[in-house]
């Protein structure tokens, strides 16, 4: 017996056990001697004490499941509504570690700021970063759903980055760095889209990310959709909702601007007083000294003008070096030898080919664009070009 399939996928009764299968693969089993007839399943649910329903709800693994269960039937909704904030808070804490809730709450609050001024930024930092605020003790379902969605996307990118950074092994072998992997969807468009050729948009480059930054500014949900798109056309439509102008006023530039002026004093020459005066304290004190230790190790020969987003540490950032624990650093003897910036890796075959064909690619796509063509193009395949009326200009009578 299917009931509101988008919420509860199926209700089954077999040998006195009623099972509720949710569309997110979560299942609740209810046992009763009176549940053998399938037609009695819903009436049996209605007979459950409200305390039992609320306890089941509080044990759910995530807020999306809670919403599904609350909307599954009137009995569930009434039970949820009687103690909405208490149940929601329990479930949110099941899904999100309490230790990161202050940061999650800060992100939620930042999304509600309509316009940012210098004073507004200062006030926000004072309220949510200088003092870690976990918000009220209770959460509404609407706010919890927003936090849950944010957590879902951050967890996806964190796991993806961790799996691709390869920790220390990546430092000792020639591997594709995470950043090169993640920009592949952008470069696919740049290399094959006809309008991108007309505008001569370059491939993604961390030193000049102005064409990517408007896309990144849409947020994690949009970026994830682009990465997971099933086809070129789907990815293009997600990436270019409208014309994206080049901008250098975003995160990369902001990180560089956050550095202090060059005082010509390397970190290795700092006294204890210098460290206290010039190195800012973290917003959160990490109980593991590994991240701080490896940061000091990597920046010994730079001044305060390069403490943030230093180009010579790019390969370390690509490997997530400030996530390495003290135990791992000791086991691998990382801190025993000074950090040396590695040589620039040789270009990949794809990069060599792109540089050799770049100008002719731009010129050909520009010609097609001016003739009215759009869509996907390659030197060896012009069959996917979309022409007005379905025919190339030369094919018109």
TrEMBL record:
Annotated segments matching region Disordered: 338-357
Protein name: F-box domain-containing protein
